[in-house]
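Is 2-acetamido-2-deoxy-beta-D-glucopyranose placement plausible here? Inputs below.
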Amino acid sequence: MAGDRDSSTIITTVTITAAALIATYLIYRTIRKSSQKLIGRVKQLYIYPIKSCAGIKLDAADCNIDGFKWDRRWIIIDENDLFLTLRSEPTLALVQPSIEDGQLKLTAPDMPPVAVPLEVAEGATSKEIKIWRTNITAFDCGKEIGDWFSKYLNKSNLKLLFKPDTTPNRYVKDDSIWGVDGQSNDQCAFADLTPYHLTFTASLDVLNTKSSRQISMQSFRPNIIVETEEPHVEDHYKYYHIKDTTFRKVKNCERCLLTTVDPNTGVRDVAREPLKSMRTYRKSADPRQKNSPLFGINTAIDRLGPIAIGNSVFAN
Ligand SMILES: *[C@@H]1O[C@H](CO)[C@@H](O)[C@H](O)[C@H]1NC(C)=O
Ligand SMILES: *[C@@H]1O[C@H](CO)[C@@H](O)[C@H](O)[C@H]1NC(C)=O
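Reply from A.M.:
I modeled the complex. Tokens:
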């Protein structure tokens, strides 16, 4: 019967097409995998719970869409709702957070320790603040912690704000400069643009042959430090694979005055290293970065999962 012949032809065609598609995909996947190069291994992992304050070292971490848990979830603002950074307040480098007993605990030189809960306090007021070119709403952590920062920095009316997991992040696509380089789901809380910042040890080694002062990787405030052999390997790859995760480079990171603050002393280098040396060999060609020197990469994440110190890092 004609009808049966037609349907069996359709079934055969569909089967052949499906088989061809699967075969193409498998070949593509094999080629993609074989195009990934081993560039190094994870040396260290860090979170910086409060923007511009000291970091916390981790042995392992889950990679979420919006960064490691507790990374850049608090921020200090002044009486004009402008956020503070190491650029203007270098001694923030000596504010050391820890996450213990369901609290964010802080210590700083000549200050009593203080703590805030890891959640929005009941009745907390919310505020919309601007981080570079995009806005976010966050919650006031209260007068006690605000006054603590005011006393430490000798600046009146400071506030600490918290962004819980349950309220919206900032999206890369909304950024007026870099939005075109992001994808629709790229997001973070208080990080500058993207949820993960990766740096590479061989690039630091090159820098330290040129800088008048030994620069520590902490000056760049990375989340993931990759131990590498080839300097500036990040110039050649867009995707970075660690275990089952895939990080996608959105841009090379342009560096500012913040890097001149010594993370161990909270003092800004009068010789302006490492910026001065980096300007001699690492200036960006992207006009959006206005001749700033480049170090490390800002990445979003395409595949989530756990990673740990020692994991191999592949790139393509
Ligand atoms: C972003 O927040 C600031 C206040 O910090 C406000 O002046 C501005 O209008 C907001 N922008 C948008 C697009 O909502
Ligand atoms: C704190 O700031 C005020 C002015 O804003 C200044 O007069 C005072 O000397 C400062 N105190 C310290 C300890 O730096």
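Short version: The pocket of 2-acetamido-2-deoxy-beta-D-glucopyranose (ligand 1) is lined by residues 81, 128-130, 135 (CB under 6 Å).
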